[in-house]
Write a structure and sequence with these properties.
Elements (H helix, E strand, L loop, with lengths): L1 E7 L16 E2 L2 E2 H7 L8 E6 L3 H7 L6 E5 L6 H6 L11 E6 L7 H13 L4 E7 L8 E4 L5 E5 L13 E10 H7 L24 E5 L12 H21 L3 E2 L6 E2 L4 E2 L4 E2 L4 E3 L3 E2 L4 E2 L4 E3 L2 E2 L4 E2 L3 E3 L2 E2 L4 E2 L4 E3 L3 E2 L4 E4 L2 E3 L2 E2 L4 E4 L2 E3 L1 E3 L4 E2 L4 E3 L9 E3 L4 E2 L4 E3 L2 E3 L3 E3 L4 E2 L7 E3 L16
Parallel strand pairs: 1-4, 1-6, 4-5, 7-11, 12-15, 13-16, 14-17, 15-18, 16-19, 17-20, 18-21, 19-22, 20-23, 21-24, 22-25, 23-26, 24-27, 25-28, 26-29, 27-30, 28-31, 30-33, 32-35, 33-36, 34-37, 35-38, 36-39, 37-40, 39-41
Antiparallel strand pairs: 2-3, 6-10, 7-10, 8-9
Length: 449
Amino acid sequence: MVAVAILAAGRGTRMKSSLPKVLHPLGGKSMLERVLDSCALVQPSRYFVIVGYEAEAVKASLSHWDNIEFVLQAQQLGTGHAVQQLLPLLEGSEEDVLILNGDVPLLRQETLQELIETHQTNRNAATLLTAKLDNPKGYGRVFCDETNQVQKIIEDRDCTPEQKLNQRINAGVYCFNWGKLGEILPHLSAENDQKEYYLTDVFTSLSPVMAMDVADLEEISGINNRKQLANAYTVFQQRIKEKWLLAGVTLIDPDSITIDETVELSPDVTIEPQTHLRGKTVVGSGCRIGPGSMIENSQLGENVTVLYSVLTDSTVEAETKVGPYAHLRGKVSVGAGCRVGNFVEMKNTQLGEKCNVAHLSYLGDATLGNQVNIGAGTITANYDGMNKHPTVLGNNCKTGSNSVLVAPVTLGDDVTVAAGSVVTADVESDALVIARSRQVVKPHWHLKQ
């Protein structure tokens, strides 16, 4: 059994933000959530998140996790002090405890699984993740024998010139036997320049302690400022895009594309340059998205085309074409085989199958049946200044150019609206509605000077 404890109490002053460092977003999730996700293969028995700065905000950010135990570190007096807060919660426990940092979000699940297996197979008192750097300056050095048993850890400032040639550094990720660690934690000392309790001080009293080198150095990158956060996002995006390229998705100019981890893509999807996929977006096989499109929390069926358009919280069924320059938002649903064209905006609107909204229209709070044709410049006047009202069009309706449907209004099946009409009352099925003034021409008339 393995418990996980994540250190997430610090503010992160170098982020220059009132937001706790661990809550800064990285590809659709906070850094803290990404650390939690990295533990999936370990299958922890318990999750502890040690909080301090803006503790309530950190707790609220994880409200959708139902198995988190929050531990308050009222004063941030070092890593050893943070882990000391677990003493009453794990009293008498003999299970292993994995200690992670909430600002190291690039760890792979497989790496942590290997760390646990190494720890338990060798029956270690402690196992720490290490890395070999070409330039380890500034990092504490980990000295091991030929079997990777840790002999000592020395801070960079305390190393001799010969010791500084050692390239193995401490990554700050540990697995402990809690029974052995719990005996030592109460006796940590803060007699150092920072007056803090360092977790690394326990290694002089534990045995055996083993190091495990991580192959991918990017995994252990800590985030202390916005530049490092941007670098981490680049790494994160490289991983995601490599995954989808190997899964049969075409990315044209991958460097200009961003994809959240929560997005699901099918084989034979093509993503054009300058396209961004966010949130819980699902894209069906054969779709072509972009260039220049933004899709967030939306579902696209097979063979959908989206060109220079923005879709949010919407659903588009198969064989539909969207754009260029369309905007779908607020629970829009578009049926199969539709055309949503140039400069069309839809909000909270449902289209049936084979509808055509080709250009220059606004449809808000509307429900359209099948095979409806919306003429250029048609709008639904859905807002009366206080409330939004619905517009309903039956099957096979047609609106002429520059029509206005003043909600609430309902048109039956097979209704044709003449161009330029302002429709203010319901219309029965199988009808032509003309709602405009008769044209008047006055010859030989002009404004007097």
